[in-house]
């Protein structure tokens, strides 16, 4: 056949260590129909400071693949919530082949068409809290690329028509496809009049949605006569691909005929007439060709080149063509993103008759609904059983309802189909099912009531069970509980939801408490972070005693908002918020930086109010730009230290000796205060992690408040027995220098005060 190659790529994204599904990077691809091979080229490279990260350590990268919906991953092996079905996915781990770059290749032969999702993440780290901008962080970037090769002009088989084909010696196989409409209970593919050098040296393979693989349903025509391949309960509204493959080493030309028969379960006594689909099958895809333009039963479908088609009589259906029951639709009511309720007409109470199943369909929209959780709830009305031992079984299947015998209703499985099982009875009258990230399309729920006997389950007699049925789509499972937050995430134009857990809780719905913080631990951490701010009381008392009223007001502001910010910032249930979280965080950060600013300005002994206003404006601007940026916070502090250094240098030059002049001030106040502040900064920048945050940050509060008490300079208070200083009359100004204040002594009353006034 003729192959066409398509190429798709995505923008590189920075990967993060795995904590929850909210920390992964999700990539969305679309594979077209008739694709025979898909090749993913997985490119990963390191960056550090805008250059190649040759010095960055090698960290393994895990990539997950899934068709139809995002992968439900569990790399930390946590517990899922009860009644949760976990769909499977394929995982691949990339290793580094070069210092700063690696490439992995993942091939999928005959992939399913439609949406494909890739999820990638780094392994979980130790949870270190790093200061933004302190050092160049190693970044691991991931970029997937997709190359697909698809066949064009695949021959279409029309039900009830014979297709003649001749396979040349240089050909290995022929590929066909047939569209299976709704209400089809069986697909029968048969090879007729097969003539070759060695009998009928052909393999017959059948697969839904994509070309067959080596492990697809197959039949060796050498060993079976007639060569018929039957498939019960096929997927509705999908293409089925038929591959006729020649045995290797067979010489000469092989001629054969292929015919497909579809059994219409809405009319069990007849097969589907040639080219006469039921009313439910008219919604065919455009790729069916020009068939949609033909009048029903007026003319035969067009014959493809090198083959002929002939109609054949419609045989009667076999025992497999079991009667299918009416499918009741549901009404879709969209309340919000991933908040959809499916209402049943004349429901929500449903009557399940004893002689047949009750079938319902739930339609999930492509792309829009695969990022949430499909929830199903069955509740049995015990009073409707009339004392009988009745069990109602529910089978939820994708793209085709399960309408087989009693054993299949109990197990919810057949040879070619598997679904999700629910059951309710008089003992357990409630059953729930949750499917995170469900595949889109039609989901069919078949309800069947059976009575328990000594020989197993048998159909009930004259007992109609009544069940309450509730089906809905939600963003997360139980809204992630009290220890989690349901987040709505976006990757390009695709939306999905995931839980972000806190207080040590883990799992898909934040229900795994293996590492959870106890209530006593949460209370202790909250009290430590809040009560450690009481250490600001001594600096406030020192400031008031020294008449630094503005500084004392700033310290009180910092103590108040730091206390209530940490009371509101707790991850568990010991939380108390007096304002919005964002307001408390801004005031806490502003108060902390303003405390540093006013303390340094007071140490410089500069009194203009304009400096305090300048600091407040600069710090507010920096916090509004980035509250966690290093230089946005460090810049104003360094500017204040620069002002203090200039003031101290000017005094040192003017007085011709070091300022402050006394060694006691340096030894007992400035050096201890500077060391305490430096220790606090080192703890904050290099030691603090998520596990030790509550006590390391409490120590940070104690050290910062203690350093302020040491660094705040004393203010000299003139003695009451001294009279007013004489002032010289005349023009000019008078500059009074208080020597005691310049010396920086704590208690000015110890020595006499001598003022030197010059004009």
From TrEMBL:
TM ranges: 516-536, 548-567, 631-650, 666-687, 693-712
Keywords for the protein's UniProt record, in alphabetical order: Cell membrane, Membrane, Transmembrane, Transmembrane helix
Gene Ontology CC annotations of this record: plasma membrane
Residues of the EGF-like domain: 499-510
A Pfam family that the UniProt record links to this protein: DUF3522
Matches recorded under InterPro entries: EGF, NGX6/PGAP6/MYMK
Protein's membrane topology: Multi-pass membrane protein
Keyword set includes Ribonucleoprotein: no
Compartments in which it is found: Cell membrane
Region (Disordered): 298-320
Family as reported in the entry's similarity comment: Belongs to the TMEM8 family.
PANTHER family associated with the record: FIVE-SPAN TRANSMEMBRANE PROTEIN M83, TRANSMEMBRANE PROTEIN 8B
Name of protein: TMM8B protein
Organism taxonomic ancestry: Eukaryota, Metazoa, Chordata, Craniata, Vertebrata
Gene (UniProt): Tmem8b
């Amino acid at each position: 056949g003729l192959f066409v190659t398509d190429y798709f790529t995505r923008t590189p994204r920075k990967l993060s260590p795995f904590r929850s599904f909210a920390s992964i990077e999700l990539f969305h691809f679309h594979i077209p129909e008739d694709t025979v091979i898909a090749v993913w080229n997985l490119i990963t490279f390191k960056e550090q400071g805008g250059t190649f990260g040759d010095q960055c350590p090698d960290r393994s990268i895990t990539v997950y693949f899934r068709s139809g919906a995002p992968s439900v991953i569990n790399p930390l092996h946590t517990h899922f919530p009860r009644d949760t079905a976990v769909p499977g996915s394929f995982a691949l781990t990339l290793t580094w082949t070069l210092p700063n770059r690696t490439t992995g290749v993942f091939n999928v032969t005959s992939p399913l068409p439609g949406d494909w999702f890739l999820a990638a993440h780094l392994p979980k780290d130790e949870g270190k809290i790093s200061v933004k901008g302190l050092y160049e962080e190693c970044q691991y970037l991931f970029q997937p690329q997709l190359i697909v090769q698809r066949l064009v002009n695949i021959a279409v088989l029309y039900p009830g028509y014979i297709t003649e084909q001749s396979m040349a010696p240089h050909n290995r196989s022929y590929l066909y496809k047939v569209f299976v409409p709704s209400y089809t209970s069986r697909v029968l593919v048969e090879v007729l009049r097969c003539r070759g050098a060695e009998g009928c040296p052909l393999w017959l393979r059948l697969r839904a949605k994509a070309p067959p693989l080596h492990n697809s349903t197959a039949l060796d025509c050498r060993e079976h006569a007639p060569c018929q391949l039957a498939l019960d309960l096929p997927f509705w509204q999908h293409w089925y691909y038929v591959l006729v493959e020649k045995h290797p080493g067979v010489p000469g030309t092989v001629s054969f005929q292929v015919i497909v028969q579809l059994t219409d379960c809405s009319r069990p006594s007849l097969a589907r007439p040639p080219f006469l689909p039921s009313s439910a099958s008219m919604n065919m895809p455009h790729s069916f060709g020009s068939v949609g333009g033909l009048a029903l039963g007026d003319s035969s479908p067009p014959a493809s080149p090198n083959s002929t088609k002939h109609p054949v009589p419609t045989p009667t259906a076999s025992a497999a063509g079991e009667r299918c029951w009416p499918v009741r639709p549901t009404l879709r009511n969209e309340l919000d993103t991933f908040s959809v309720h499916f209402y049943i007409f004349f429901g929500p109470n449903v009557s399940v008759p004893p002689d047949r199943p009750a079938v319902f369909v739930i339609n999930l929209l492509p792309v829009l609904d695969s990022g949430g959780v499909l929830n199903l709830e069955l509740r049995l009305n015990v009073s409707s059983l009339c004392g009988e031992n009745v069990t109602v079984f529910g089978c939820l299947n994708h793209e085709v309802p399960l309408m087989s015998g009693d054993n299949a209703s109990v197990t919810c499985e057949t040879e070619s189909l598997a679904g999700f099982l629910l059951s309710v009875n008089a003992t357990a009258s409630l059953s729930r099912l949750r499917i995170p990230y469900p595949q889109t399309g039609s989901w069919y729920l078949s309800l069947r009531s059976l009575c328990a006997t000594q020989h197993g389950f048998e159909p009930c007699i004259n007992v109609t069970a009544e069940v309450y049925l509730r089906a809905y789509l939600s963003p997360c499972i139980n809204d992630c509980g009290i220890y989690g937050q349901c987040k709505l995430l976006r990757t390009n134009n695709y939306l999905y939801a995931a839980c972000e857990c806190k207080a040590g809780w883990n799992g898909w719905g934040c229900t795994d408490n293996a590492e959870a913080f106890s209530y006593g631990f949460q209370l202790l951490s909250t009290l430590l972070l809040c009560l450690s701010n009481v250490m600001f009381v001594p600096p406030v008392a020192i400031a008031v005693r020294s008449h630094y009223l503005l500084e004392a007001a700033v310290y009180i502001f910092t103590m108040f908002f730091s206390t209530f910010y940490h009371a509101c910032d707790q991850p568990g249930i010991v939380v108390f918020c007096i304002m919005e979280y964002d307001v408390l965080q801004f005031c806490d950060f502003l108060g902390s930086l303003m405390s540093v600013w006013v303390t340094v300005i007071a140490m410089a002994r500069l009194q203009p109010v304009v400096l305090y206003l300048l600091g407040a404006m600069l710090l507010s601007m920096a916090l509004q730009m980035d509250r966690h940026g290093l230089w946005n916070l460090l810049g104003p502090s360094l500017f204040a230290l620069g002002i203090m250094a200039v003031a101290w240098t000017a005094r040192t030059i003017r007085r011709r000796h070091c300022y402050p002049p006394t060694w006691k001030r340096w030894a007992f106040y400035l050096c201890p205060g500077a060391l305490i502040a430096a220790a606090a900064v080192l703890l904050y920048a290099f030691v603090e992690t998520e596990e030790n945050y509550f006590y390391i940050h409490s120590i940070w509060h104690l050290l910062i408040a203690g350093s302020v008490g040491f660094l705040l300079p004393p203010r000299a208070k003139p003695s009451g027995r001294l009279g007013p200083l004489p002032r010289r009359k005349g023009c000019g100004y008078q500059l009074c220098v208080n020597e005691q204040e310049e010396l920086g002594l704590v208690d000015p009353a110890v020595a006499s005060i001598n003022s030197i006034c010059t004009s």
